[in-house]
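User: I'm writing a tutorial on reading structure tokens. Could you give me a worked example: one chain, its sequence, then its tokens, then a sentence or two explaining what the tokens reveal?
Assistant: Sure. Here is the example chain.
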Amino acid sequence: MEKINISLFLIFFLVGVAHSKSIGHKQVGNWCVAQANAPDDKMQGFLDYACGVTDCAAIQSGGPCYDANNIFTHVDYALNQVYKTKGTCNTEIGMIVTVDPSFGSCKFQ
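And here are its predicted structure tokens:
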């Protein structure tokens, strides 16, 4: 019986690992993105900070996540970059989500 339990555990574990990597083209995991009601001044301040401590090339002009008139797109990306590199989500303006915020050629880690 113990051998069956271990075998079942291994099967479920391997299936879980395989499915945790992706579902369709979307990743499964956690991302830090901007709250809908985050104040513009706080978001701009965070962008200034984040782009000093992590790579913001994707949200610069010509980058895959650049959108000149949408600060939320830029803050989403910057919040997530800091979350993935530093391990913290700025909950003053951000929140953790489980739906991949990637879009088009803009891919979130």
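What the tokens reveal: The longest strand covers residues 28-34. Helices lie at 2-21, 40-53, 71-86.
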